Structures are given as structure tokens and as C-alpha cells.
Amino acid sequence: MNGIQGTPVLPVISLAQLAACEPSALAQLHEACVHDGFFYLVDHDLSTALIEQYLAAAQAFFALPESVKQRFGHDRQRGYPHTARGYVGAYGETLHPDAGPDNKQHLDWGIDRPGGAPFAGPSVLPDEHLAPGLNACAYALQDEVMEHLFPDLRRAIATALALPPQAFDPHFAQPTLIQRASYYPAGAGTAGKHTDNGFLTVLIQQALPQPSLRVHTRGQWRDVPCLEGAVLVNLGDLLQRWTCGRLVSTAHEVVHYQPSARVSLAFFIYPDIDAIITPIGGGPSFSTAEVMLENFDSIWVRKQGAGRARQLV
Ligand SMILES: O=C(O)CCC(=O)C(=O)O
Ligand SMILES: [Fe+2]
């Protein structure tokens, strides 16, 4: 569970302390965002029972026959881009081109909104009969992350940067979300090295005896075990760009050789789809839509991997 001499491999930061503006927690967050780009978050108030139910419901979905799961594949989605929602089978996604297609499956939700904007759905997902409890858990945890955890964390990041707490808020009136359950088969699961592309990611790993997630921080690859009661947070390329590189998005990968399958739950959070962002510190403005469409084009059309995959050593 821990690194050398019991020291966690990544910083462990309390969201309750951040929300209370405790200077030591804010200093820890600043250090983690500048140097690690990846940290454990505790005291986050997410429901443990809900997480367990969501993991179990996702496992049951992935155990369905492939032909059933393919009914929710990209070619069945009606939103734009159609790759933003639904099921992808083994070897369907390539997060790093040199590593080849990933041996994992995934199912993506989002925040569906009318109007036809990019990444706004609608989602074609398995119903209650096929996947009992799955959507109810997914959307209930989505609410907890998007209504509570993320706003508190976003304001803490602004505060840690010596900005007003609400500095990022105008661009998060209607945040954009890719919400993913991933399934890695026993003994052979992979996700190629990449960076996440958004503002930040909240990642929940199924508790297993050995780590499968590896993160490149402070010059070396580290195994990242589950820490009881903690979720992981990693910063994305969009936030790195927003802060002119002051905060770092961090490379990571999954190498899953354990004897049982592994499920993880991720929330890839982006600003409003129409946000035009001016980097703090200067430089040309950019939009959420252009960042996301470029990343999806790289993954699904050009097959060049996710985030800054091509630049990683
Ligand atoms: O499954 C995991 O632990 C991480 C997956 C990941 O990095 C991703 O899907 O972006
Ligand atoms: Fe990732």
C-alpha cells in the first residue's frame, strides 16, 4: 500500500482542510500541483457505499456478452462526436501509439444537455434491465463529484495559486464531463502511457492487493496503490496550458498483471464547452471545444494517442 518506509508515493491531501482554507493543506496542494500533478484526496465526502455499488454494477455490465455490450458502442451513439459516449471493447482504444491498442474495455457517460453542442450527448446506454443499478449509481456519483468535490477542489486550486477562490468559476457554469468505467482483464490489462487532456481527473481504483496504475512524477515511474478512503486526482493538459505550465499534467499508464480483473471509475472534467480561456500569465486564448475535439481526433481518427502521449519518453 505504501512506498518506501511507509511514505505514500503521492501526497495525501484533505479536501475538508482545503475547503476550510487551512494554510498547510493549501501549501501541500500547491506543492502537489506544481511538482506531482497527481495526489490522493481524502475527506472528500463521496459515499463509499455508492462507490462500491457502482463498481459492482460496472463489473456486472462488463461480464455481459460482447454482442450485448456492442449495442451501446460508438456506432450507436447519436451525439457529436459519437466517440464521446458508450462502450468500447478490448483493443478498441490506443492511449499510446507505440504501445498499441489497450487491452481494456470501457463505458463512457457524460452530462447530457439538449442543443447539439459537442460532447453534450445524448448517451445511448444499457438500461436498468440489462445493467441493474449502473446508470443510477453513475449519475448519483456524478452529482457528488460535480456538485461538491470538484467545486471545492477547483476553488482550492485557485487559492493555492494565490488567485481569488472563484477565479476559474466563470468557465464552469456548465462543465463538460467524460465519465468512464474501465475494465482490465485478469493477468493482461493495459492502458498505454498518456496524459489526461482536461482540467483535472478524479480517479477511483478498485481496491486490489497490488498496484496496477503507474505514474511518472519527479523523474521516475511509481506504482500507485489504492489508499483506503482516498480517491486520486490528476491534473490535465488543459489546466497545464491555462497556467502556462506552472501546474503539471502527469504521465501515467496501467499495467495490470494481477489474477483478478480490475475496474476503475474516472471523471475527466473540462470547462464549459464554449469557454474561451486566456492563459494565466499570457499567451494565445484557446477554447475547450478545440482542445477536446483535437484530443478525440488524435485518439479515434489519427490513432496518435491521448493527451501528450507522443511527447512522452
Ligand atoms: O484505470 C486507471 O487507473 C487509469 C485509466 C486512465 O488513466 C485513463 O483512462 O485515462
Ligand atoms: Fe488517464
From TrEMBL:
Keyword flag Magnesium: no
One record GO biological process: ethylene biosynthetic process
Residue ranges annotated for the Fe2OG dioxygenase domain, each copy included: 174-271
EC number(s) reported in the record: 1.13.12.19, 1.14.20.7
Enzyme class: oxidoreductase
InterPro entries: DIOX_N, IPNS-like_FE2OG_OXY, IPNS-like_sf, Iron_ascorbate_oxido_reductase, Oxoglu/Fe-dep_dioxygenase_dom
Reaction(s) catalysed by this chain's protein: L-arginine + 2-oxoglutarate + O2 = guanidine + L-glutamate 5-semialdehyde + succinate + CO2; 2-oxoglutarate + O2 + 2 H(+) = ethene + 3 CO2 + H2O
Pathway(s): Alkene biosynthesis; ethylene biosynthesis via 2-oxoglutarate
Cofactors: Fe(2+)
Keywords: Ethylene biosynthesis, Iron, Metal-binding, Oxidoreductase
Entry's family note: Belongs to the iron/ascorbate-dependent oxidoreductase family.
Protein name per its UniProtKB record: 2-oxoglutarate-dependent ethylene/succinate-forming enzyme
